[in-house]
TrEMBL record:
GO terms for cellular component: nucleus. One of its GO terms (molecular function) is double-stranded DNA binding. This is DUF659 domain-containing protein. It comes from Aphis craccivora. Pfam families: DUF659. The lineage of its organism: Eukaryota, Metazoa, Ecdysozoa, Arthropoda, Hexapoda. One of its GO terms (biological process) is regulation of transcription by RNA polymerase II. InterPro entries: Cggbp1, DUF659, RNaseH-like_sf.
Length: 414
């Protein structure tokens, strides 16, 4: 009896130590996961953990062992990514969905294609989730179609039922995207392909820039003369008494029109500012020729009169009985006519709003899902704008797989 008692007493502490070690291990693993997720969410590079002051601070106030940056990258980034994908799957559930896709060239010169998935339901916020971010060897309908198909299959765990739940594809109006939509209709029979309406409106604005060359020169050169010239900026502020002119960016929709409207509202003062500059600079000479041209006043007046409330202005363009108005109206009609998916979405929307005699062949339950449908690809453009934060000058060595996991784990709103 005494020997058995001694054995029991010896065994008890050993059992407690094993249990405690498991608890410590689980706690430590969870801390590493949470730390990895926090760094990714705040976009703090893993190499910051190698900073001795930062590392000492974390150890002091957490009483935890701080992992090496390579440990987080090799072991815990995958865990965070898997957790993010599971959460997105749970949010999507069994609902009908829409997808957005677009590509861009990142700071490394690589073709990046992003795929977003959102819920299509008459009572649910349609905010989409990023589920794939891949590097493509080139961008054409074949690579983009395969990218969409493969990643949807992976996301839905190869459950073929999802093919009938994809109701909408939103892309830009690039020819290869149009061809992609046509190719994917074979696999997704209920899918409508809509090209981004915002892209279409921007193409109309590009036409505006084309038919008003003098205004375009004013906008482009007005931006240049104030760059890296504190002396001119000081003269500008003394004369203009307002903010600097808006800087048009080709990749940002509407910025050219915003700048043109600024010059329409402040033309006389801007003319005084240009005449006050006596430097022998080519840009200033161009501006002096532009502000004295015969058409600049009438062109700015036209833009201010008919385009200041764009896109409501498109309605007015159709009523303008002159050549320039008709050119823009024709361009708008051409853009809309090519967007056949938009016409069908509009038809469904009329049906949802109770208009009668609508010849709709789709099931009522599916038509109702389009109540909250998106007709722009702005959300996928936003994911690209955030790539600049991730790909700083010191962070161009991401592997393709780690880049995707990092980007997707960062995007999900906790």
């Amino acid at each position: 009896y005494s020997r058995e008692s001694i054995k029991t007493k010896k065994n008890k502490p050993i059992q407690q130590q094993i249990t405690d070690s498991f608890e410590i291990s689980n706690s430590q693993n969870q801390f590493h996961i949470d730390l990895c997720q926090a760094l990714v969410g705040a976009n703090i590079p893993f190499f910051k953990l190698q900073s001795l002051p930062f590392r000492s601070f974390l150890q002091k106030y957490t009483n935890k062992s701080i992992p090496d940056e390579s440990t987080l990258r090799k072991k815990y980034l995958q865990v965070c990514f898997d957790s993010t994908i599971v959460k997105i799957r749970q949010k999507i559930g069994e609902h009908h969905i829409y997808i957005m896709v677009d590509e861009t060239t990142d700071a490394r010169g690589l073709y990046i294609c992003n795929l977003l998935v959102g819920i299509l339901h008459q009572e649910i916020d349609p905010t989409p989730f990023l589920i794939a971010c891949k590097v493509l060897p080139k961008t054409n309908y074949d690579t983009v179609s395969r990218f969409i198909n493969d990643n949807l299959m992976n996301f839905f765990l190869q459950n073929s039922e999802y093919q009938y739940k994809v109701l909408l594809l939103v892309t830009d109006a690039a020819p290869y995207m149009i061809k992609t939509g046509q190719a994917l209709n074979t696999f997704y029979p209920n899918m409508i392909h809509v090209t981004c309406v915002a892209h279409g409106l921007n193409r109309v604005l590009e036409k505006v820039r084309e038919i008003f060359p003098e205004v375009n020169k004013l906008v482009n050169n007005g931006k240049k003369i104030l760059l890296k010239s504190p002396h001119r900026v000081e003269i500008y502020k003394n004369i203009m008494e307002c903010e600097l002119p808006p800087e048009p960016v080709i990749t940002k929709w509407g910025t050219w029109l915003e700048a043109a409207l600024f010059y329409a509202e402040n033309f006389n003062k801007f003319k005084m500012f240009i005449n006050a500059l006596d430097e022998d600079v080519q840009t200033i000479k161009k501006l002096k020729r532009v502000i004295t041209s015969a058409s600049i006043i009438s062109d700015l007046t036209f833009i201010k009169s008919h385009l200041s409330t764009f896109p409501q202005a498109l309605t007015h363009l159709k009523k303008i009985n002159n050549e320039k108005g008709q050119i823009m109206a024709h361009k708008f009609n051409s853009v809309v006519e090519k967007n056949t998916g938009y016409a069908l979405i509009k038809k469904y929307n009329d049906c949802i709003n109770g208009m009668k005699n609508m010849n709709v062949e789709q099931q009522p339950a599916i038509v109702a899902c389009y109540k909250m449908s998106s007709i722009t690809s702005v959300e996928v453009e936003r994911t690209f704008s955030k790539l600049k934060d991730i790909l700083s000058d010191r962070r161009h060595n991401f592997s393709a797989n780690n880049f995707e996991m990092y980007n997707i784990s960062k995007k999900l709103d906790k």
